[in-house]
Amino acid sequence: MKSNRLKTKLKEIEFKNPLIAASGTVGYGREYENFVPLSELGGISVKGTTKEKRLGNSSPRIAETASGILNSVGLENPGVYGFINNELPWLLEKDTNIIANIAGRDYDEYSFMAEKLNSTKVNAIELNISCPNVKEGGLSFGSDVNQVLKVVSIVRKKTNKLLIVKLSPNVTSIQDIAKAAEYAGADALSLINTLLGMKIDIKTRRPILKNNVGGLSGPAILPVAVRMVWEAKKAVKIPIIGCGGISSFEDALEIIMAGACLFQVGTAIFKDPLCPLKILKDLDLWLIENKIENISEVSGSLLEW
Ligand SMILES: Cc1cc2nc3c(=O)[nH]c(=O)nc-3n(C[C@H](O)[C@H](O)[C@H](O)COP(=O)(O)O)c2cc1C
Questions:
Q1: What's the domain range around 172?
Q2: pTM of the shown model
């Protein structure tokens, strides 16, 4: 959707509106385009892409929870070459920002993918640091300040694309992690990724997910996302993209008031594929009603007690 009130910028990149489809929830956009033309969105963050093709985890890998879902898809994707050769050319024909979301198992994989993507026409790279570092004991990159410093610095050296670092909520201090990402050269942060959770079938006494645990997303996590965006905003100067449980314009406004300048919508699209259009229309109407010329004026406008 186009409206001067919704136009926004992330460094030198223009977004016709602040809504980005969250990584992993619309794949590479091919099926989603049948519901909503990608040109209606500010951008699309594509499915998390790894160095090699991955088939993902065994099923069941999605479970419904109260106001959300648990997923353990396990980064099923065609690999970075599959993305560049087969998905990107189609995506680049769409009038929207293309954000390549990358996930690695070690520093070399992140470095390799950043270098490859740097020579493509993607508009930005989003670094998913919620993955386990297999060479350093399996602890997720995103939960350790030193690993964040290292992985972001390595990727920064390989790319001059807009670099968004996507933070995991499964941490003790989001502020320490946010500061580390900024220090190491991130241009922006996106937060939050999913929260680790588990659901048990009491009849079989087994976890519903074959992977035992999964990532919780959807409306249930909105208050966590709003709190973390608010905390991160106090810690860094770089722009923040809010994400987690947004399914209405009111949700989007909460996260924007907390400090985000753009936002991502994921799980809500599963329930109502058309919801991004409604969110944008309602957001625009709210700006008109409140006599606000541009959405950027709302960012961080929270009045604290
Ligand atoms: C099925 C599914 C797959 C996802 N895959 C990825 C992924 O590949 N990379 C990533 O950074 N985030 C991934 N996410 C996380 C979302 O991008 C988003 O951060 C999270 O779901 C919270 O937003 P939401 O509540 O609006 O869905 C995935 C989420 C879901 C539900």
A1: 8-56+75-195+217-297
A2: 0.97
